[in-house]
Specification:
- By secondary structure, the chain is of the alpha/beta class.
- It is 36% helix and 24% strand.
- The chain folds into 2 domains: 189 residues, P-loop containing nucleotide triphosphate hydrolases (Rossmann fold, 3-Layer(aba) Sandwich); 174 residues, Glutathione S-transferase Yfyf (Class Pi), Chain A, domain 2 (Up-down Bundle).
- Helix 4 packs antiparallel against helix 5 and helix 5 packs across helix 8.
- The chain starts with a strand and ends in a 5-residue tail after the last strand.
- The structure holds adenosine-5'-triphosphate.
- The site of adenosine-5'-triphosphate has 16 residues, from helix 1.
Length: 372
C-alpha cells in the first residue's frame, strides 16, 4: 500500500525545542519522556503539515521559542503516495504562518492535498460533554480529511456571514445586499452540509463490519433549523425568512455554523456524553481509526495520526489492540507517553524517541525499543 509519512522532521526555535531533527521511516513513532519535556510540542509541529492552527490551535507567535523574539520554523520531508515533498512552514515575529512546498510558496489549504493529519489530544476527552463548538471543529476536521475543498467552503461561508452579521448589527435594511450575501452563504453552506454528510457516511461505512476492539460510534447531526442544510435554495430561503429574527439578535441564528454532532455508543444505545471517561476515549479512538481506514481507501494512504497521551488512558489489553490496529492500518502514528514501558508492546514495529529537558531546552534521543 502507498504511504503517507514524515521521513524527516526538523524544528528550529519551535516552543521548547531550540533545534531538533528526526530521521524516520514510515513506522509509528513512540515518543516518551517526563512531563513538560516537549513531547506534545513535537506532535504540534507535525500537526502543522495540515492547514490551520495545529493541534493546540495556537497563534503563530505563541509557537516561537521564548524567550527569544525570533521566528520559528518546521521543515519536513513528506512521503505522500508515490511522491516526496519538502514542506517548510514558519512564522516571523508578529507574522502569520507561511508555507512552502517543494521550494514554492503555497497556501495552507495546499497542505490538505498532499497530507492528511488527524489528532487526538487530552483536551478532547471532554468533547462530548462540553460545548458544541469543539464537536463542530472535530466534525469539520474529519470532513476536511476526506474533502480538502471543505476548508474553502467554510472560509467562504464565514466571510459572507461576518458581513451579514455586520449588516444585522448596524440595522441595515438593504434587501439586495442581504440577498447577495445570503446567496454566497447558501452556496457555501450547502457544500458544507453535503461534505459533512458524506464524511459521516464514510465513517459509518468504515465502522460497519470492521474488526476492531473499539466500540462503534453512531454519529448524527443535530442543531437548530438550517444547521444541517438541504440544497442552496432552501438555505437561501431560510436566511431570507430569518432576517427579522436575526436582526433582533444581531447575528445569524440558523445555518450550518450552528450544527452539533451527536454520538452514541451504538452497542449500548447510550449517548456518548453519558458514557464513562474510558468509554468516551474508546469512542474517539474508534472514530479516528475508522477515519484512517476510510482514508486509506479514498486518499490512497492512511493519514498521519497524532495521538497525544493516548496510551496512558487505556488498559493493557486495549493498548495492545490499539497498537495492533495502527500497525495493520499502516499509519505513521505519533504517540506520546511518559515512559518507554507504555510502548513496549510495539517493540520493533515502531521507532522510539526519548525527549529530555536540558539546560538549553528540549532535546531528542532516538532509542532502541525495550522488547516485549
Ligand atoms: N513558546 C514556548 N517557548 C518555550 N517553551 C515553551 C513554549 N511553549 C511551551 N513551552 C514549554 O514546553 C514545555 C511543554 O512541552 P509539552 O507540552 O510538549 O510537554 P510534554 O512533554 O507533552 O509534557 P506532558 O507529559 O506534561 O504532557 C513546557 O515546559 C513549556 O514551558
Amino acid at each position: 500500500m502507498a504511504e503517507l509519512a514524515l521521513t524527516e522532521l526538523s524544528l528550529s526555535q519551535f516552543r521548547s525545542h531550540p533545534r531538533a531533527r528526526l530521521v524516520l521511516d514510515a513506522r509509528p513513532v513512540a515518543i516518551f519522556g517526563p512531563n513538560g519535556a516537549g513531547k506534545t510540542n513535537l506532535l504540534e509541529a507535525a500537526s502543522l503539515f495540515s492547514p490551520g492552527r495545529g493541534l493546540r490551535r495556537a497563534a503563530a507567535d505563541e509557537m516561537a521559542r521564548a524567550p527569544g523574539g525570533l521566528g520559528w520554523k518546521v521543515t519536513g520531508v513528506l512521503r505522500s503516495l508515490h511522491q516526496v515533498h519538502e514542506v517548510e512552514t514558519w512564522a516571523e515575529p508578529g507574522g502569520t504562518r507561511q508555507v512552502r512546498i517543494d521550494g514554492k510558496p503555497a497556501a495552507q489549504v495546499a497542505l490538505g492535498r498532499i497530507a492528511r493529519v488527524l489528532w487526538l489530544v487530552p483536551a478532547m476527552d471532554r468533547l462530548w460533554i462540553e460545548g458544541a463548538e469543539g464537536r463542530r471543529r472535530f466534525l469539520d476536521r474529519i470532513t476536511l480529511s476526506f474533502e480538502p475543498g471543505h476548508g474553502d467552503a467554510v472560509l467562504a461561508y464565514d466571510k459572507a456571514m461576518r458581513e451579514r452579521n455586520r449588516l444585522l448589527k448596524d440595522q441595515v435594511r438593504d434587501v439586495h445586499w442581504f440577498a447577495a450575501l445570503e446567496g454566497q452563504m447558501a452556496k457555501a453552506g450547502a457544500a458544507i452540509g453535503a461534505n459533512r454528510r458524506a464524511a459521516l457516511d464514510r465513517l459509518a461505512a468504515a465502522q460497519a463490519g470492521a474488526e476492531t476492539a473499539f466500540p462503534h460510534a453512531a454519529l448524527t447531526l443535530s442543531g437548530p433549523e438550517g444547521a444541517d442544510p438541504g440544497g442552496a435554495d432552501d438555505l437561501a430561503a431560510a436566511f431570507a425568512e430569518g432576517r427579522g429574527r436575526d436582526m433582533a439578535a444581531g447575528r445569524t441564528l440558523a445555518g450550518p455554523h450552528r450544527v452539533d454532532l451527536e454520538a452514541e455508543f451504538a452497542a449500548k444505545g447510550v449517548a456518548a456524553r453519558l458514557c464513562s471517561t474510558g468509554e468516551q476515549k474508546a469512542l474517539l479512538i474508534s472514530l479516528i481509526l475508522a477515519n484512517g481506514r476510510a482514508l486509506a481507501q479514498d486518499f490512497g494512504a492512511p493519514p498521519l495520526l497524532l495521538l497525544d497521551e493516548v496510551a496512558a488512558h487505556l488498559d493493557a489489553g486495549r493498548r495492545a489492540a490499539l497498537y495492533d490496529e495502527i500497525c495493520a492500518l499502516g499509519a505513521q502514528a505519533w504517540m506520546t507517553g511518559t515512559g518507554p514501558e507504555l510502548f513496549a508492546d510495539l517493540g520493533g514495529r515502531a521507532q522510539h524517541v526519548e525527549v529530555v529537558e536540558e539546560a538549553g531546552g528540549s532535546a531528542l534521543r532516538p532509542v532502541a525499543p525495550i522488547g516485549p
